[in-house]
Amino acid sequence: MGDSVPTTAGAAADGQAQSKKQMILNAFVMNTPGHLAPGFWRHPRNKTDQYTKLSFWTELAQLLDKAGFHAMFIADTLGPYDVYKGPSNVVPALAAGAQFPVNDPLYLVPAMAAVTKNLIFGVTASLTYEKPYALARRLSTLDHLSEGRVAWNIVTSYLDSAARNHGLKEQIPHDERYAIAHEYMEVLYKLWEGSFRDDAVVRDREHGHYIASDGVLQIHHKGKYFEVPGPHFCEPSPQRTPFLFQAGVSEAGNGFGGKHGEAIFVGG
After folding, report:
1. Closest CA to 97 of 36, 45, 164, 158
2. Are 159 and 78 a contacting pair, CB within 8 Å?
3. Average pLDDT over residues 40-51
4. Strands (E), 7-98
5. DSSP letters of 147-181?
6. Could you say which protein family the record assigns here (predicted)?
7. 148 in Cβ contact with 237 (< 8 Å)
């Protein structure tokens, strides 16, 4: 017979092969015994009550890394859920371990990065209760120690309990939190991207110069909410600006995520 003619089924199969997309696997965790299923820590095979042990996290990170997961996304909250059965009542959350207690997620990253090769670590950090200069330094440090495998889930916080425990009588109004957040990000971009020249760090042992004298610039930020002269206190990390997640679902949150987020966290 002459040249073969592809069948309809064969053409369809080729089309399917060409349209295949890579699935991105992301583990969703929290530094607490009870994340999304309060009380599930009681299950005999569950180990989340070991969340205070570093080995729990390093073993989990290695398991995910070997399984081909792309990332571990670590949620966080800065105050307890305390409105059920009366205001400022944390008792209902206690027995179930319902996101109480919660440890800081950022301290987990260096240890997990040290025992993995490819896994990315997305950490949640609120910009409402921490100054931009300090958070820029913390995230740059994580990016250095993870060799460029850190992401930041940007949140503005939403619990009254968090506001009270950070010195406020009530939360900053919702849309104002996002107005503050826009300027906050402006400060961070200036610190991360505009403070150190690419060739600033010379590490010249012979002449005794670690950073070129003209390699670092102040950012001179003066805005409505922040005044930060700079310069950034960390030399450029592998990413400079970490990969950015955003999780707001309000109109203001969507606008913020559309401007700053590289991945948007949504409920399915």
Report:
1. 36
2. yes
3. 93
4. 26-30, 71-75
5. TS-EEEEEE----HHHHHHTT-SSPPPHHHHHHHH
6. Belongs to the NtaA/SnaA/DszA monooxygenase family.
7. yes
